[in-house]
Amino acid sequence: MSFKELIINAGSSSLKYQVFEMPEAKVLAKGIFEQIGTACTFTHKVDKDGEEVKLLDKKPVEAKDHHDAITILLETLTDKETGVLESMADISAVGHRVLHAGEVFDDSVLITPEVMVELEKLIPLGPLHQPANIAGIKACEELIPGVPQDAGFDTTFHSTMPDYAYRYAIPKEAYTKWQIRKYGFHGTSHKFVSQEAAKFLGKPLEELKLVTAHIGNGASLAAIKYGKVVDTTMGLTPLDGLPMGTRCGTIDPAIIDFICRKENLTVQEVNNILNKKSGYIGFYPESSDARALRAAQAEGNKKADLILRMQSKKIVDYVGSFYAYMGGMDALVFTAGIGEKSPQTRFNVCERLKEAFGIEIDAEKNQVWGETAIVSKPTSKVAVLVIPTNEELMIAREVMKF
Ligand code: ADP
Question: DSSP letter at 65?
């Protein structure tokens, strides 16, 4: 028996969706609303006999909030010309990507009024995304009442970290009073690619030591020992860890006070700089897009070259520490925009891991873009894999549990 599931990924001003037929995991429709609240546009694609057809391409629409966007989406999905559903009753369940589960949930949950109260309480931990996620859930409750809804969280896959990995060595009240600790993000992606890696390697996940490298605009690594996350690079917020498109990653926390005093800025202003004006864009103001930086690097731009080498070094630092912490590593898995499509990033990282860990990347096999592949040599002590992530499908699979 097949079910149609609507998966919603609501960002602060965007909303992505996919309609799946499960358990076949066939994508019937997908798309995105961008710039919700201002100059909103809508892109909508459907499956026609196995081909993806773009029916709406950045069509301007009136959507002042997520409720409006979901109203337009449901009309479009049931429309004769643009739809893939007979009626709204065809939707068996809705899965929402939700940013933060705090310490309240350790897995995806079926949404109930009690769960909604908890999600609202977690807003301070994700002030930009959590309200958008909640707005998406509320809109669906209103527009398709009675349809079961599930929340798949970015943080829960990391909930297996031991306390000595997730606590910060600051006065304990930070944790007991404010739940300040490492949570980690991109959990849905780390979970998906770890499961796919196990399938690819033909071994149970419970027998593998993996490091998954989700390198996109946002970037994080996870150490996954026998199917459970034991450490990850993002922290209380997604700012921590690797340098990213616009985020600085780990820095000496005293830098914040230093800049505040030197530039006469508030903590919030410096926080904004660290989140939005650092990383790639902090060194190469023209763009935060990895392709633009690689092109600039090839033309001899020293700043682009430096930040790319800084990012690779940091990836290597974490892979090395996770290797030691897990007592070995069976596979290093690259995923997300850069991880899947930048052979150069994979090569630079793996070359630096060669001497210490016997990781041998195969330069020819490494020429893959966005497809599942093993890119290490047979003699490599650690398998290096490229596995395209699919967070929406992971959420759709979790919904099937309910
Ligand atoms: P996010 O979901 O965090 O916004 P993505 O996973 O989509 O990010 O990754 C976006 C990043 O992937 C961008 O920096 C983009 O430049 C990079 N990227 C996409 N394609 C390529 C490519 N062919 N080569 C190098 N980088 C690429």
Answer: S
Amino acid identity, position 355: E
Alpha-carbon span 89 to 244, nearest angstrom: 42
Q: Which of 14, 342, 366 to mutate to test the pocket of ligand 1 (most atoms within 8 A of CB)?
A: 342
Placement of tokens 């630096």 in the chain = 352
Q: How many residues does the chain have?
A: 402
- Residues framing ligand 1 (Cβ under 6 A): 216-218, 245, 289-291, 294, 336-338, 341-342, 369
Name the region of 280 (left: φ>0; alpha: ψ -120 to 50; beta: rest).
alpha
Contact 199, 233 (CB under 8 A): no
pLDDT at 201 over 90: yes
Q: Which atom in ligand 1 lies closest to the alpha carbon of residue 218?
A: 3
pLDDT digits (tens, 9 = 90+) for 107-140: 999 999 999 999 999 998 888 889 999 999 999 9
pLDDT value of residue 127: 85
Backbone angles phi, psi at 184, to 5 degrees: 85, 150
Crossing angle of helices 391-401 and 187-201, rounded to 10°: 90
Q: Which residue has the tokens 């992606």?
A: 189
And the tokens for 211? 């490091």
For the question of residue 150 being annotated catalytic, the response is no
pLDDT digits (tens, 9 = 90+) for 320-362: 999 999 999 999 999 999 999 999 999 999 999 999 999 999 9
Model confidence pLDDT, tens digit, residues 260-274: 999 999 999 999 999
Q: Say whether pLDDT at 2 is over 90.
A: no
Q: Is 262 exposed, middle or buried (0-12, 13-18, 19+ CB in 10 A)?
A: exposed
DSSP label of 370 = S
Distance CA 161, CA 232 (A): 8
Of 395, 363, 388, 387, give the one whose Cα is nearest residue 377: 363
Backbone dihedral region for residue 160 (phi beyond 0: left; psi -120 to 50: alpha; all else: beta): alpha
